[in-house]
Task: structure prediction
Amino acid sequence: MMQLECDIAIIGSGAGGGVIAKELAPLCRKGLKVLLLESGPYVTREYFDQTEENMTRLYWDRGGTQTKDGAMTIAQGRCVGGSTTFFTGTTFRMPQHVLDKWNVPDLTLDDLKPRYQRIEEELSVHELSDQYINKNNRYFKKGMDHLGWSGGPLRINTSKACKPYGYCNLGCASGAKQGTMEVQIPKAMSQGVELIPNCHVTKIGERELWARVTPAPKGTHPNHHPQGDYHIRARVVYVCAGAVRSPALLLKSGLPVMSPMLGRNITFHPAMIVYGIHSEQIDGHQGFPKAYYCDEFSKTNRYLLETCFYYPFVAAKNVGAWGDEEKEVMANYHRLMAILILHHDDVFPHNRVRTKGEKFVVDYKIDAAMIKSLTEAQIASAEIFFEAGCESVVVPASSKLIVSRDERKKLREYVSEKNMLLNKVTITSAHPQGGCGMGQDVAYSVVNSYGQVHGHPWLFVMDASVYPQCIEINPYLTIMALADRSAEFVRGNVEKLLL
Ligand SMILES: Cc1cc2nc3c(=O)[nH]c(=O)nc-3n(C[C@H](O)[C@H](O)[C@H](O)COP(=O)(O)OP(=O)(O)OC[C@H]3O[C@@H](n4cnc5c(N)ncnc54)[C@H](O)[C@@H]3O)c2cc1C
Result:
């Protein structure tokens, strides 16, 4: 077993780990050794060929990690940059009512606001100018406005280099999308943080961890460390492996006196994608996929609608049918409008991440309340499509998959909860959260508001797993702001922590 030693080891390089690496990088100038350990390869934009075949290799399980009952798949990146290599860059600040619901004693929006501001500037967050708004987005706004529903333009993190090719979720080939691989990690490395890609951490002990380095896949940056098993001593350890994998790693590690809430309080924003078939050519796959959201039903029916568009395999998988019906929808790919439904799920004791030998299992039940919300959201999306000029809509929770404009009045007859057949309709999550929730008390939370694990001052968690409940908006910005806050705490207490 090869040996390494460092002052701070960061496990995972996504929204949490990437920001921690950058914000702790100034410590390298003071002589501290900081390692950034990433399970996936280091691949930069030259490698991004935008094919589903190649790019989904950079996701865990090709983007289809399943919950135990198979009713939902979870998409998370496995490469330098983590899921931020594939995010669309939709940027929201946490609303006050969510912070109130979280009820983390010393966390306030006054503290987070300047951090949001700084990160948004660093990532060029802005509303898209007219030239980037394609018909799918334009018509969504038209539909929403006709119905008089609330919503507005999304703020997106892209630089001026945005082409826009439209395949953002397969990695940004123009390098415009501002994930940690493009922004924070190069800054961290230039100040001395050492990135070790293809390095999968298997276990954490008291100020030590075990990892395996595997060969760099063809077409990715070469490794600087020989392949094999490593034992790494670290005086401070940051677990930033993402929701699901951070709690799973900690559970597997079996550290003493961990909170009973480890692996609990998980949420996912269960999502569905629905289509309208327009009379005109829409070409939603060209141009920037996301420009508007509708929050009319966010409080009452607990979902948010956003524009979206996907490449052929993912588009087909979301139709919610096979055979001739799916063929009919996909034959109209160039005329499709698409809406992403994001449900605001609650925490339940039966939902959790647990370990099974070397592996982990995600127990998650899509319950009646979620089914109701997702069904209502399909009806609302269909109304937007019709107002936007679609000839028909494709509704998975319906006794009739394709509902024509003439049948619009019958929508509520066709689309119902009883037709929302789990494991037939496609439910996905790109926003896993929780499992190492923040709070004050070890009985109810795993970490404090700085991500420091209760009872283990040398151990921090900083990623989406620290969310105590779902955030109800796209999550990355708050992960980064919390990471900024956590790193500031570590910089301010470094002598004490490194003892
Ligand atoms: C397709 C897609 C689109 C999205 N769009 C948006 C959007 O528009 N706006 C938004 O706010 N959010 C979006 N998100 C969600 C957002 O990207 C995530 O919430 C965020 O990146 C989560 O950050 P994280 O640090 O928790 O985890 P991640 O970013 O997933 O990073 C975790 C990292 O840890 C690594 N890792 C895991 N286990 C180990 C291990 N044992 N050893 C070493 N490394 C390990 C992983 O490989 C990964 O690189 C999107 C996500 C996806 C997948």
The first strand starts at residue 2 and ends at 11. The chain has a mean pLDDT of 96.
